[in-house]
Every structure is written in C-alpha cells, then in structure tokens.
Amino acid sequence: MTSETQLRQEIHQDLMRDSTEYCCYCGQQRYRLGCCGEVHFETYADMRQEDQQAILDEMVADEMEKLAKEMK
Ligand SMILES: [Zn+2]
C-alpha cells in the first residue's frame, strides 16, 4: 500500500520533470491565457519551495481521495 509520504515523493519527482506551467499569482495551472490578467507563468521546478509545497499538498490530497474511493 502506498503511504502518503511515498506518494508525496513520487508526485514531487514527476512534477520536477513536468513542463506544465502555473500562474505566478494564483498558482493555477495554465489552462488558458490570463487567469489573473497576467502572463507570468512558471514551472514547478522554478517555484519557491513554499509554492511547491502548496501544489504538492493539493495533489497529494486529490490522490489520497482517489485511492480511498478505489478501496471501497
Ligand atoms: Zn492566476
């Protein structure tokens, strides 16, 4: 069974290689231009550690929820 810490580690490593860009202001994934009316985006690897943690927290919570559902 995957522990939360393991999951966090795996997601972090995936994200470090990921070229997906996020908004510098609201942290939203870049789906379309200008969620904040700005065009500043950065990849996960470019972010400050605290911003990485925030995204990681969200993704880990999502994954844990999915795993919990699969187990029912
Ligand atoms: Zn934004």
* Rg value: 14 Å
Note the total helix count: 2
Estimate what percentage of residues fall within beta strands: 5-15%
In whole angstroms, the N-to-C terminal distance is 14 Å
Number of strands: 2
Number of domains: 1
Reading the helices and strands in chain order gives HEEH
Q: Residue ranges: pLDDT <50 for 5 or more in a row?
A: none
Overall morphology: elongated
List bound small molecules: zinc ion
Topology:
Elements lengths: L3 H14 L3 E3 L17 E3 L5 H22 L2
Antiparallel strand pairs: 1-2
The structure holds zinc ion.
Structure in a nutshell:
It is built from two helices and two strands. With 72 residues, it is mostly helical.
Protein model, in words:
By secondary structure, the protein is mostly helical. It has one domain (4-67). It has 2 helices and 2 strands; from the N terminus they run H-E-E-H. A two-stranded antiparallel sheet has the order 1-2. Helix 1 (4-17) packs across helix 2. The longest helix has 22 residues, at 49-70. The two termini are 14 Å apart. The structure holds zinc ion (ZN).
Notable features of this structure?
single chain; two-stranded antiparallel ribbon; binds zinc ion; 72 residues; mainly alpha; 8% strand; 2 helices
